[in-house]
Sequence to fold (108 residues):
Amino acid sequence: MQRAVQALAVKPVKVLVDGDHCPELSCPAEAIVHGDSLVPIICAASILAKVERDAAMQRFDEVHPVYGFRIHKGYPTSMHLAALEQYGACTIHRRTFSPVRRLIVRTP
Fold:
């Protein structure tokens, strides 16, 4: 989120965060628990983000078909976790995703 805000061409007056805490940002921010169901602009942003993520997962599926990104969209389904166990993490897996972090820790 910090990188996204820093990359904006126009500095925001305020950032609304869907959640219970705000990252350190260069502008005022407000955390709103369940913001995606309470604040229309957060809801709209959430929809746009999910649509973009789903499209990205389809592109990643073409490059890394063994993981099934087209089907599970990166969510930790049993299929995704099984693929992680079998093939390990690929370049697009977030190292902060706990199943990936566990794989990295136990890899010699």
Helices lie at 2-7, 35-38, 40-63, 69-72, 78-87, 98-106. The longest helix spans residues 40-63. The chain is about 55% helix and 5% strand. Strands lie at 15-18, 29-32.
